[in-house]
Design brief:
The complex is a heterodimer of chains A (about 400) and B (about 180).
Chain A lengths: L1 H25 L4 H19 L2 H4 L8 H26 L9 H22 L2 E2 L4 E3 L5 H32 L4 H21 L2 H10 L1 E3 L4 H53 L17 H22 L7 H4 L7 H17 L5 H5 L15 H17 L2 H13 L1
Antiparallel strand pairs in A: 1-2, 2-3
Helix pairs in contact in A: 1-2, 1-9, 2-4, 4-5, 4-6, 5-6, 6-7, 6-8, 7-9, 9-10, 9-14, 12-14, 12-15
Chain B lengths: L3 H17 L8 H12 L3 E6 L8 E6 L3 E6 L4 H16 L13 H4 L8 E6 L6 H18 L18 H6 L5
Parallel strand pairs in B: 1-3
Antiparallel strand pairs in B: 2-3, 2-4
Helix pairs in contact in B: 1-5, 2-3, 3-5
Classes of the chains: A mainly alpha (about 400), B alpha+beta (about 180).
Chain lengths: ~400, ~180
Amino acid sequence: MSDLAAYLGAAVLMALAAWAFAVELRGGRHPIRWAGLAFALLEGCSLALLAPGTVGLSHAGVDGLSVIALGDTVRTAALSFLMLLACLLNPRPARRRSPSGQAAIAVSVQVAMVLLFVAARPTLSADGNLVADPHGRWPLAARVALFAAYAVWALVELFIALLPQARLSPTGPLRWSVRLILAAVCVGVVWSLWSYDDIIRVLRYGRLDGSEDTVSNILGAVCATLVVAGALIGKWSVAFRATARWLRLCRCYLVMGPLWSALHQAMPQIGFPEGGRPLLAGRPAGIEFALYRRVIEILDGRLVLRAYQHPAVAAWLAQSPPDAALVEAATIATALENLRHGRRFAGSRESGAATIGDGGLAPTDLDAEVQWLSRVAWAFRRSPLIPELLERLRAEEG
Amino acid sequence: MGTRDGRAELWRRCQTVVDRLDLPDPFDAEGFIATLARKRGRPIELIGVPARPDRPCGLLVTTARTDLIIYSSDTSTVHRQHILLHEAAHLVCEHDAAGPGPGGGVGTLLPHLSASLIRSVLGRTVYTEPQEREAELIATMIHHRVARGRTSPARPVPPRPRADTVIETIFGRGEV
């Protein structure tokens, strides 16, 4: 369980670092991204190094003590990059620490950690515990406390830097991204404070679990998952919205198909042969292009049909529930029938009979037009009233 | 032009024309036509008339001193804008220089305009004429370019406020 959590957290963080690296290669260099990338990579490496499975590889010739020392060093370096990230994200430049100050703190902590490790003169027991020299309990306890304090300090700085972003980010996925990362920071603080039992154990028994315990590893995995979820929710929301829009446009295109076909069959001249283009060409652009052509061609056909629209259609539908799209669909269907029989109604259009957008429904942009024509097309194809109206038209006009 | 190569060539040519256009931002056809008129040094007059079955929904009439775009005013905004763009595309491609003479019901629309003053008339009716195909494709491509947010050929993207981009800064922008 402990190994699984540690290796899973390590894998997640390293994948995140690889992704950030790929982003960095594509786009412009940005110190904030490099700091985040370095933190994720080093933290992932330290999780893997300090996993019980890695520390217990001594039977395979690996020096467990060196692995622990290396893992601690890597994790301390990760914290230094986290501190740098917090500093870079601080919205108040005046309160940012200088790069040399950052470096001085990072080096000092690393040196202190190494010195305290050496002073503790630990050995690694067969069960994977670090056993301090009888005079080395305090240095080892101080080392654990120093690491926890450094981690809490970095996390608190990051929390303070991120908190205003949560308020200033636009509502929606981006704000949730910041919130999830703030939650990850809080879990990180708990993870760091969890080491208090290590301090007590070192002082009391002179022993320290060389690898992370189960609770620590679970907290680490939760922390990594929250960071990744925070990163992905902002990233994927854009992709999700684009995909949803593409699907909506495809649906509208298909819904309009029968209406367009009926108009095109009756008036082939409305079709624009050069507009024909594979639907998927140019990724989302293909459907946008095709849908726009379909809208324009339907509207062209609708203009031609004005001379053929029967002036009484709206009155025939007066007893059904008011639905402007149904009236429009019925007007088109009866006008097509009249076109086929060459029946023009001289006074219909000129006298201001029903037309697209009558009744204050005139679409003002393409999205509104698409929605409107989709409703009309759906009624044209699906409404049971249309065949009834056509029957009535045939009966009355012969 | 019906061949695949001819169609591809038309697409390429029109795309080149559209890519070079400087489109107003925010975009509307009337603003674009006003810009075009300034560039050409000739006034372009827009005349909205009710649609009639016996005449095209858009008409470009070129006289010695001015260009007239006659369009159906009683159709939807999207359609009206497209008709205007189609007629403007004729001017962009300079079809007016080689267009057919008076006709297309101009006399009934503009009775005060002597036929001798009219140089050419282009009507948006069917797409059998190469000029109409070209103008229609350019109008569609202009709309497409505007819809994709590329109103200016080489407009730099303004920097976005820092507060909105923390996540994007760390993990890169999520644009698709």
